[in-house]
Design brief:
Helix content of chain A: under 10%
Order of helices and strands of chain A: EEEEEEEEEEE
Number of helices of chain B: 0
Radius of gyration of chain A: 13 Å
Oligomer: heterodimer
Strand content of chain A: over 45%
Structural class of chain A: mainly beta
Helix content of chain B: under 10%
Largest sheet of chain B: 7 strands, mixed
Strand content of chain B: over 45%
Largest interface: A-B, 25 and 26 residues
Shape of chain B: globular
Distance between the termini of chain A: 36 Å
Chain lengths: ~110, ~110
């Protein structure tokens, strides 16, 4: 079992729809959770971080964390073609080291 | 302000050669991280520096890999006797203070070992 698991996709949604990206992790000691966006040929770019159970909203993005279920998700509202990218879930134990999932490819179709 | 910078952006070398990859973190960031990313995979942790010292080098795959950060700013990742399997994008990230802080990534160095 991988430490951080994501469905590789591709996840295809129409423009304007809600995209839901999911991530599970195996280490119950994990304390920090990050979502990065990575365009093809580029480096990861931070979208959001979340530390506490519940929802955290930032513009069109909402991160959701459920530590009991070891599950973290990212919702993208009003998806745009420019949101098409690979979304990486990363998990940390506040030791500096981040463990990344393999990423989910999102395609937003006009 | 300036982000994390990495040089070179691309490096092609032959099997068995030695390479050095450089990372210049965001000014004022005390923590620096190296990751390696293969095609279709997420970044894989290599090493984490807090200041000049390596706080965690558990991700270095073998003793051919070594990294330094002598003055607590710029870091160099050194790979000896390169192998074709070392081909990947090497990413550097920095954070303000360390373990709990958000990491910001540089553009990466694409290493190709022929």
């Amino acid at each position: 079992q991988k430490e951080v698991e994501q469905n590789s996709g591709p996840l295809s949604v129409p423009e304007g729809a809600i995209a839901s990206l999911n991530c599970t992790y195996s280490d119950r000691g994990s304390q920090s959770f990050f979502w990065y966006r990575q365009y093809s040929g580029k480096s990861p770019e931070l979208i959001m971080f979340i530390y506490s159970n519940g929802d955290k909203e930032d513009g069109r993005f909402t991160a959701q964390l459920n530590k009991a279920s070891q599950y973290v998700s990212l919702l993208i509202r009003d998806s745009q073609p420019s949101d098409s990218a690979t979304y990486l879930c990363a998990v940390g134990r506040n030791t500096g080291k981040l463990i990344f999932g393999q990423g989910t490819t999102l395609q937003v179709k006009p | 302000g300036a982000g994390v910078s990495q040089t070179p952006s691309n490096k092609v070398t032959e099997k068995g050669k030695y390479v050095e990859l450089r990372c210049d973190p965001i000014s004022g960031h005390t923590a620096l991280y190296w990751y390696r990313q293969s095609l279709g995979q997420g970044p894989e942790f290599l090493i984490y520096f807090q200041g000049t010292g390596a706080a965690d080098d558990s991700g270095l795959p073998n003793d051919r890999f070594f990294a330094v950060r002598p003055e607590g700013s710029v870091s160099t990742l050194k790979i000896q006797r390169t192998e074709r399997g070392d081909s990947a994008v090497y990413l550097c990230a920095s954070s303000l203070a360390g373990a709990t802080e958000t990491q910001y990534f540089g553009p990466g160095t694409r290493l190709l070992v022929l």
